[in-house]
Amino acid sequence: MISLEGVRKAYGSRRVLEGVSLSLTPGRITGLVGPNGSGKTTLIKLILGLARPDAGRMLFDGVPFDADGLYRARIGYAPQSPRLPDHLAVGELFAMLRALRPGAAVDEAMLESFGLRAEWGTAVGKLSGGWRQKLANACAFLFSPDVLILDEPTAGLDPVASGLLKSALRKARADGRTILISSHILVELEEFADDVAFLNDGALRFAGPIESLLKETGTRRLEPAVAALLSGLKVV
Q1: CATH code at position 206
Q2: Which runs of consecutive H residues, i.e. helices, occur in 31-142?
Q3: Which of 100, 50, 48 is nearest to 77 (CA)?
Q4: Domain count of the chain?
Q5: Phi and psi based region of residue 21 (left: phi greater than 0; alpha: psi -120 to 50; beta: remaining)
Q6: What is the pLDDT of residue 236?
Q7: d(CA 176, CA 55)
Q8: Residue 118: exposure state from Cβ atoms within 10 A (0-12, 13-18, ≥19)
Q9: How far is Cα 42 from Cα 34, in angstroms, rounded to an integer?
Q10: What is the mean pLDDT of each run of 10 residues along the chain (236 residues)?
């Protein structure tokens, strides 16, 4: 679905991504992991079209990303710290999103499961952090996108809401969607991710099935496996 080939990105003299090649395939959940400053946010911005690579190719269904960004209509995105229009009520926000995509099919399953209709008349700015995260995740799922990109999606969620999100992700995977999740909660990623992409100092140090990473590092869990990569015990 999405392929990055030798992608490089720098801001001035600071190299942020250095020759990253990564494929995100339908029907699989990829966990994007790495320490702070490793390049995860920049990689996501490139996929979303919020930044342009300095070198390399980026393909969507085998076609280079178009300059008009039309492919973005097929992506649902939830940021770590959602910046939403605080003056709008929750219901008004969803009405605005629908108006921006007239005629598009709408999936309200996540909206309903999170109980967001109970906050329909509440101004977004008055929502707690957990409710704002629910809102951001529901917006990401709203138009049944082919690709889901979620940045720390369970941050601030209570256990029930977190479980509902994980169930929705598993269903999205079963439906053949392409899913990329950036998270520092490795124990949680291990519950539902199929693959892991590990970035460090702007370079992709590992990309593949979690089982392969465990085998490469001689560990049984994702957290010690990533720790092994960070320590330089095994870099592939």
Answers
A1: 3.40.50.300
A2: 40-48, 90-100, 109-113, 129-141
A3: 48
A4: 1
A5: beta
A6: 42
A7: 30
A8: exposed
A9: 12
A10: 93 91 95 91 93 93 82 91 90 94 89 94 94 94 95 91 94 96 90 93 92 90 89 56
Report the predicted TM-score, pTM, of the whole model to 2 decimal places. 0.91
Quick: pLDDT tens for 62-85.
888 877 778 888 999 999 888 889
Which residues partner with 27 through β-bridges?
A: none
pLDDT at 197: 95
103 to 66, 100, 143: CA distances (angstroms):
23, 10, 11
* DSSP designation for 89: B
Positive or negative: CA dihedral 82, 85, 90, 92:
negative
Assigned domain for 133 exists: yes
* 119 vs 141: CA distance, rounded Å: 18
pLDDT given at position 75: 94
Look at residue 236 and tell me if it is in a domain: no
Residue 77 lies in a domain: yes
- Amino acid identity, position 151: D
- Predicted confidence at residue 235, as pLDDT, reads 44
Question: Residue 55 domain-assigned?
Answer: yes
Q: Which domain holds residue 196?
A: 2-231
What single-letter amino acid sits at 105? Answer: A
